[in-house]
Amino acid sequence: MDKSMDKYLEKAQVLIEALPYIQRFNRKIIVVKYGGSAMVDEELKKNVIADVTLLKLVGFKPIIVHGGGKEISKWVEKAGMTPKFVNGLRVTDGATMEIAEMVLNRVNKSLVQMVEQLGVRAVGISGKDGGMLTVEKKYSNGQDIGFVGDVKSVNPKVLYDLLEKDFLPIVCPIGMDEDYNTYNINADDAACAIARAVNAEKLAFLTDIEGVYKDPQDKSTLISELRIEEARKLIGNGFIGGGMLPKLNNCIEAIENGVSRVHILDGRIPHCLLLEIFTNKGIGTAILGDQESRYYNENE
Question: Which residue from 274, 143, 113 is spatially nearest to 206, judged by alpha carbons?
Fold first, then answer.
């Protein structure tokens, strides 16, 4: 058999391997939290949007929740101000909030544009639309950090309406409090709250790390599947620190509230989303509820 035929058979094999996953997640909601380097590098951006569009076209119901921190910092500096952070959270005064909202809306519409170019209908919304995200003021260890919100409640009606009409919703993490003041929301928190509210089958975080390590200094200790009990032990034993700690706590909370699987993926790897969802081994770290089965076909 010639080499070119081998190449085509390999493609067929990949499609067949994807089949059980396509069947299992057909018509299921998947929330993708999109941030980090994958938002800044144009090539990676195209890959991520192509991945999510493919998920939509094979019958999944994806929702993108995006950040934009690096872009916000850039525009805050352009306005002659210095970005300030307390415990990893952006201090957001009135002027910074105005810039953040403008920048996030700009990012939002650029993502809509990319999805539309690939032939899928997308609608960009913020948490203000349809009263989707209601927040209360967030404090960082008792410190006032301005217009930063904790999600208090999610009204997913607008998301269900868009999904039902076959749109791909793209959400920017801005919400309002009960007095209709505007607040910036950490995109991880917004993605978790939305995934819980719509009972997502999967929540995928695109980040700048490969996944969860037992020992962050040793790359060979990447954990590919983790039950929430095991995740709690890792946190309790002090293995998890830095930006991974709130992420992992978010994952545990999402699973306790009905999300079946949460994936932490390295968004710098081209097509990481497809590799994680459609291949037997996957990449990154999958966090599972205690009732969830491990990957099937594991012995193949």
Answer: 274
Adjacent-strand bridge partners of 261: 202, 288
- The reported pLDDT for the residue numbered 5 is 83
**CA 91 to chain CA mean position, Å:** 22
Give how far the C-alpha of residue 12 lies from the chain's centroid of Cα atoms, to the nearest Å.
29
- How confident is the model over 256-273, as pLDDT tens digits? 888 888 988 888 888 888
The mean of the pLDDT values for the chain is: 87
Question: Band of the pLDDT at 281, cuts 50, 70, 90?
Answer: low
Distance, CA of 155 to CA of 134 (rounded, Å): 8
pTM of the model: 0.89
222 Cβ partners below 8 Å, 6+ apart? 210, 211, 212, 213, 285
What would the mean pLDDT of 164-180 be, rounded to a whole number? 96
Sequence-separated (6 or more) residues with CB below 8 Å from residue 11:
none
Could you please report the per-residue DSSP string of the chain? --HHHHHHHHHHHHHHHHHHHHHHHTT-EEEEEE-GGGGTSHHHHHHHHHHHHHHHHTT-EEEEEE--HHHHHHHHHHTT----EETTEE-B-HHHHHHHHHHHHHHHHHHHHHHHHTT--EEEEETTGGG-EEEEEEEETTEEEEEEEEEEEE-THHHHHHHHTT-EEEEE-EEE-TT--EEEE-HHHHHHHHHHHTT-SEEEEEESS-SEESSTT-GGGEESEEEHHHHHHHHHTT---TTHHHHHHHHHHHHHTT--EEEEEETTSTTHHHHHHHSSS-SSEEEE-TTS---SSTT-
What is the Cα–Cα distance from 143 to 141, expressed in whole angstroms? 6
